[in-house]
């Protein structure tokens, strides 16, 4: 009796494990298929559809390498950016080491600059100019949107890249004249952003080493406030 009972338990356990493996495999293959289809869909989109996709980015998280050129020197930074629409953002300096850990957090009205190493914070209430900062992808998107309205923006295909170009008409900043965003055709992911002055000199070069599109919620960006 005992042997039959143990055999019955073994069979039941085997069936449960088999079902669990089948369910896991199903979801794995389903997600893999969805990702594959997503890539194929991006490849098959027209220029107009790709343009709409970029214009409708609602959130992103990116690790970027930034090179800023001036008349006297070149400065390089590595930053971690998080953004979700309409105006929630967090930027953390990863490099250089002397300013690493500095965070700039904006919740839509209040700007907080936090220095992790010193454990100090500076708060600016009713701050309105956060996204005049040309380092942000969503700032480019807004500039491109305005450029479409006045006829100074365009998108064209070059090899395996889509190049989004827009002029920037800002009397307060005469050095930022034109922006070019390079997007990988196959994945729809931004690769680099180049900002030029009126003489077409590159003054800012942003390389998107890692980027995730439309995967963030407001709470994830402002998680530090919930701890």
Write a concise keyword list for the protein shown above.
alpha+beta, 31% helix, 4 helices, 11 strands, eleven-stranded antiparallel beta sheet
Tell me briefly what this model is.
This protein has 227 residues and is of the alpha+beta class. It has four helices and eleven strands.
Please render the helix and strand layout as text.
Layout: H1 2-44, H2 47-55, E1 59-69, E2 74-84, E3 88-95, E4 102-106, E5 111-115, E6 120-124, H3 137-150, E7 153-158, E8 161-167, E9 178-184, E10 190-196, E11 202-213, H4 218-221
Antiparallel strand pairs: 1-2, 1-11, 2-3, 3-4, 4-5, 5-6, 7-8, 8-9, 9-10, 10-11
Low-confidence stretches: 32-40
Rg measurement, Å: 24 Å
Structural class: alpha+beta
Largest sheet: 11 strands, antiparallel
The largest sheet has its strands arranged as: 6-5-4-3-2-1-11-10-9-8-7
- Oligomer status: single chain
Return the average pLDDT rounded to an integer.
82
Number of strands: 11
Please state roughly what percent of the residues sit in beta strands, choosing from under 5%, 5-15%, 15-25%, 25-35%, 35-45% or over 45%: 35-45%
What level of helicity do the residues show? 25-40%
Number of helices: 4
Distance between the termini: 57 Å
Global shape? globular
Secondary-structure element pattern, one letter each: HHEEEEEEHEEEEEH
Structure commentary:
The longest helix has 43 residues, at 2-44. This protein is α+β, with helices and mostly antiparallel strands and 227 residues long. It is built from four helices and eleven strands. It has an eleven-stranded antiparallel β-sheet, covered by helices on one side.
């Amino acid at each position: 009796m005992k042997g039959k009972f143990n055999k019955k338990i073994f069979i039941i356990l085997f069936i449960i494990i088999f079902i669990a493996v089948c369910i896991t495999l199903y979801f794995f293959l389903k997600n893999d298929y969805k990702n594959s289809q997503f890539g194929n869909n991006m490849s098959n989109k027209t220029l107009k559809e790709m343009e709409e996709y970029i214009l409708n980015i609602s959130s992103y998280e990116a690790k970027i390498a930034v090179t800023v050129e001036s008349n006297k020197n070149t400065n390089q930074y590595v930053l971690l950016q998080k953004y979700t629409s309409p105006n929630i953002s967090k930027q953390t300096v990863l490099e250089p080491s002397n300013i690493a850990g500095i965070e700039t957090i904006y919740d839509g009205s209040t700007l907080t600059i936090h220095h992790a190493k010193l454990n100090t914070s500076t708060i600016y209430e009713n701050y309105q100019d956060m996204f005049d900062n040309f380092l942000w992808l969503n700032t480019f998107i807004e500039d491109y949107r305005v450029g479409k309205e006045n006829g100074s923006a365009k998108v064209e295909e070059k090899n395996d890249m889509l190049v989004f170009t827009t002029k920037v008409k800002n009397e307060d900043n005469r050095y930022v004249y034109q922006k070019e965003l390079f997007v990988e055709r196959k994945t729809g992911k931004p690769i680099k952003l180049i900002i030029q002055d009126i003489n077409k000199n590159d003054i800012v070069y942003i390389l998107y080493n890692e980027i995730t599109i439309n995967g963030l919620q407001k709470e994830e960006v402002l998680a530090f406030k919930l701890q």
